[in-house]
Structure formats: structure tokens, C-alpha cells
Amino acid sequence: MKKVVIIGSGIAGLSAASFMTKAGCHVTILEKNKLPGGRASQLKADGFTFDMGPSWYWMPDVFERFFNSFEKKVSDYYLLKRLDPSYRIYWEDIPMDIPANYNVLKKIFESLETGSSIALDKFMAEAQYKYEVGINKLVHKPSQSFTEFLDWDIVKGILKLDVFTSMKKHINKYFKNEKLKQLLEFPVLFLGALPKDTPALYSLMNYADIKLGTWYPQGGMYTIVNSMYALAKELGVNFYFEHDVTAITIENNKATRVNANYQNENKNFDADVVIGAADYHFIENKLLPKAYRSYTEKYWDKRIMAPSCLIYYVGIKKKIKNIQHHSLFFDVSFDLHGKEIYTDPKWPTEPLFYVSAASVSDITVAPEGCENLFFLIPIATGLEGDTEELRDQYFEKILHRFETKIGEPIKDFIIYKQSYSISNFVHDYNSYKGNAYGLANTLMQTAILKPGIKSKKVDNLFYTGQLTVPGPGVPPSLISGEVVAKEAIKYLNKIDR
User: Fold this and answer.
1) Order of strands, edge to edge, in the sheet holding 254-262?
2) Per residue in 149-200, pLDDT tens?
3) β-pair partners for 308
4) Which of 133, 229, 250, 359 could form a disulfide with 366 if both were Cys (CB 3.0 to 4.6 A apart)?
5) Percentage of the chain surpassing pLDDT 90?
6) What pLDDT was estimated at residue 152?
7) How many CB atoms lie within 10 A of CB 196?
8) In which element (H, E) is residue 127 found?
9) For residues 116 and 109, is the Cβ–Cβ distance under 8 A?
């Protein structure tokens, strides 16, 4: 039985492990932390349960497809609830709830811009095409050669995929109202790059948002991790927690052993295949001898990163009357904050921010009569000066805006607060420049132009997760694990011939 060692137990690592075990391999996951999940971790404190990372459940079909691959269903593991409204946006003036019902949303569009409901139909028809081709075709390519994309459905629809048009131009073609444009731009601004630098292909995210909907897994997003962990153990995956990987041994251009530190003891794990599901840059630059690195430090430094985050996990000893599960605060300049993330990186002057109140949908995540709040400010990667004092300043700033918009006092009711930002991402996940989401989804960092899923210099070393294909986010990470597993299985089959 072939031995596969996977470094990291995030969503991509758990996905890859399950597919490799299904193929008949002996799979070992080495994880530096105490629990699985990587960035999709969980914090429990004072009766509150916080999802530490991802909080949006989009693309339910991708999750269903994953569990179906093992003759399971999502409902075997957790219950899903569609949120309605999907989320609320706080503008400078009055807030807007985004309904789950598409026809109701069209009426809102029309109320803001005459003719925009018809434009939305056209926009969404294109977005649906991109989603169906993108999710069923593009994201499942390992992206090791341009020839992979010589697929008739892709070739005949290349213009409809809008790869060479920006999101900003694409949205401007259909809408003039600034609120409508910001509503459609937010998925890429928060998770990828400036809309002017993001291919219009990613309007597929608008289809995922508006048509497929925003959902919530009962118990929180960590329920997904627990479910994948349970499946992996059921399949026979071996987990070693608190095993901090220190090196990969290379012999004859092959990774033969992974070395890890466990309670100050050096442990070795033999391997026929190694899959790096931890931070790609960390694995290359800290675990491999220099001669076996595929990319230089200069290469990495030139990559355009998606944002990092400044996050606050906050417990409130009261119920808030006027709040939705997800709220976006777009009451300040969209353009200024975007520039301060991507164009002129600095701590934001007046940040946009997001609030998740999971306790609105789930009484299990907070003590009775309390509220569970997750505040997130997207920020540039690699910023210096990540101090508690600075974090406190930003919290005071956004808390004041939050209180003003919801019309309720909050500050005096806070009974728990924990912050998390760049230095934590580096410490906990060896995150390159403290990134939270991976690489920005620019044209020059799409598909084959991302860091490769397979090492250029080590025959049996593969990579998965947010710094390689298909990209950042929970659904892409699920798919990334499956894609890398298929390539690793091809390799093992080839050497067995």
C-alpha cells in the first residue's frame, strides 16, 4: 500500500486525504495545531462558539458533490438553512436587505434604477453560464498545461466567459447606480482583488450569491470541518496533531520522508507521495532544500495577494433587536479602502467591514440571552505594526459605526473579546505575509498562471489549497483537494507500471 503524507489538515488537506484513501493509499495527515480545519478553525470561550475563519456558506452544490463522491450526503452530517434575507448592506443612508427571493430582489433593483431588473436578468444569465462552465470544467483542471483547456465547451464559449474583460467594466455595462454596482462588486473586493483587475469570469460569484443563495450549517462553519474529519477517519486516514513539520527529505529528486517535531521529539514519516496542504510558500522556503524549490523569493514577492483580515470575536450580554446574520458596512468610501488594500497598502483610513451574528440563526453558539458577533475588516497583507493598541483603535472605530447604524448601544454589554490579525495568521498557519485568503484572482494569477499544483523539481511532491488552483475560498479548497489527489494517483499509477 502506497504511503501518502499530507502536511496540514485544512479543508483542502482533508479533501485530498479522503480521495487518496478512497484510492487505496495509506494516508497520514500531519497538523501543527491541536485540531483540524486550518483557517476554518473554531474558538470556544465563556459559553460562546466562534467560527474563526470562513463564515459564508455559498455553492452548496460543491459540498454536496464532495460528500456524494463517498456515497454520502451533506444531510448525513449537518443541517443547512437558507438565510433570508441573505445579508444586509448598510449604506451611508438607509440599509438594504438582500432577499433570497430573486423576483423580490429585481423589484429592489428597479426601485433604484429604471430598467435594471431586465439588466439583472441578462447579467445573471451570463453569470449562470460562467458558473456552470467554471465549476464543472475550469476549476477541475490541474492547470499544468494550456492544452488542458482545449475543451470544446470552453473553446466555443471563451468570449462568453469574459476572461479578458474586468469585473468593473462588465458591471458598468449593465448598471449605473452606485449601490447596485457595489452590491455586485463586493464578492471580489472582499475575497480577491480590485474589480478593475479581476476577470469578469468571476461574475459567477454573483450567480452563487444571488441565485444559489447564502446558507448556514447548523452549529457553524466548523461543522463542515468536523464532518470532513469524521469522514476521513471513517475512511481510514491517520491524523497526527501537534506535529510541526520541520523538513522534507529529498533523495534522487523524490520526497522520501517528512520530518516533524512532536513535544520536542523528532519523528519521521516515510512517503511515496507528499501533498503540501499548508502554506505553499512556507513549504517551499522552509521545508525544502534551496535546490528543490520551484519558485524564488522574488517570484513570491511579486504575487498579488488577496486581503488579510483584522477580526474580532465578540460576546454580547444582550440580544440585539435589529440585526441580520450577515451585515456589510459600506457606509464609507469603497474606492479608498480598495486602494489601501491593493494599490497603496496601508492600514485603512476608514474601513469597510463585515459582521456575522451567527446567534441570530443558531442559539447553540451563544449563552441564553447573549449574541455572538464576528467583526472583520479586510486589510492589505504584510503590514507592519500589528499591535493590540492598533487593533483596539480600529475596534473602537467600527464599533461606534456599528452602534450608530443598528441604533443600539453595544460597548457596555461586551463580556468577551478576542482579536486576530496578520501576526496570528503567520504564527498559527505559517501564512505568507499574513495572508488570509491566498492569491488575488487577477488574470495573471488564474489557472496555469498560479503556482503549480505539482513541484517542478521533486517528482512526487504536490500542493493543494488557496495558493494554488483553483483559488481561495472553502468550495475551491474542497475542489483543490480532489484535483491534487487525482494528479497524485496518476503519478502513483505511472510509477507502478
Assistant:
1) 244-251, 254-262, 265-270
2) 777 666 666 778 998 899 999 999 999 999 999 999 999 876 678 899 999 9
3) 379
4) 359
5) 91
6) 64
7) 13
8) helix 116-136
9) yes
End-to-end alpha carbon distance in the chain? 15
State the amino acid at position 280 in one-letter form.
Y
Going from the C-alpha of 251 to that of each of 3, 173, 489, 495, the distances in angstroms are 16, 55, 21, 16
- Find, among 114, 110, 108, the residue nearest to 89 by Cα: 108
Amino acid at 375: F
248-265: burial string, b at 16+ Cβ within 10 Å, e else: bbbeeebbeebbbeeeee
| CA 19/CA 479 separation, integer angstroms | 11
Residues in contact with 188: Cβ distance below 8 Å, sequence separation at least 6, in sequence order: 167, 195, 198, 202, 205, 441
Q: What is the distance between the alpha carbons of residues 430 and 423, in angstroms, rounded to a whole number?
A: 10
Mapping DSSP to helix (H, G, I), strand (E, B) and coil, where does residue 80 land?
strand
DSSP H helices, 287-421, are 297-301, 334-342, 388-406
Q: Which domains does the chain have, with CATH numbers?
A: 3-40+220-302+440-496 (3.50.50.60), 103-211 (1.10.405)
Question: Grid coordinates standing for 7?
Answer: 502536511
Q: How many Å apart are CA 120 and CA 254, to the nearest integer?
A: 52
Cell numbers describing residue 473: 475560498
pTM: 0.97
What is the rounded CA–CA span in Å between residue 207 and residue 198?
Answer: 16
Q: Tell me the one-letter amino acid at 264.
A: N
> Would you say 62 and 475 are in contact if contact means Cβ atoms under 8 Å apart?
yes
Cα 441 to Cα 158: distance, rounded to the nearest angstrom: 18
> Per 3-state DSSP, what percentage of the chain is helix, strand, and coil (rounded to 5)?
45, 20, 35
Amino acid in the structure at residue 267: K
The residue count of the chain comes to: 497
Q: Are 16 and 484 in contact (CB under 8 A)?
A: yes
**Crossing angle (nearest 10°) for helices 222-235 and 60-68:** 10
Phi, psi dihedral angles at 303 (to 5 degrees): -70, 145
Whether 427 has a pLDDT exceeding 70, the answer reads yes
Name the grid cell of 8: 496540514
Categorize the per-residue pLDDT at 231 as very low, low, confident or very high, splitting at 50, 70 and 90: very high
Name, in order, each residue with C-beta under 8 angstroms of 179's C-beta and a sequence gap of 6 or more. Answer: 89, 91, 96, 112
pLDDT at 117 over 80: yes
Radius of gyration of the chain (CA): 22
The mean pLDDT value of the chain amounts to 95
Q: What is the pLDDT of residues 440-490, one digit of tens each?
A: 989 899 889 999 999 999 999 999 999 999 999 999 999 999 999 999 999
C-alpha span between 357 and 375 (Å, rounded): 9
Phi and psi at residue 371, in whole multiples of 5°? -125, 140
- Between CA 65 and CA 288 the distance in angstroms is 34
Closest among 421, 424, 452, 446 to 192, alpha carbons compared = 446
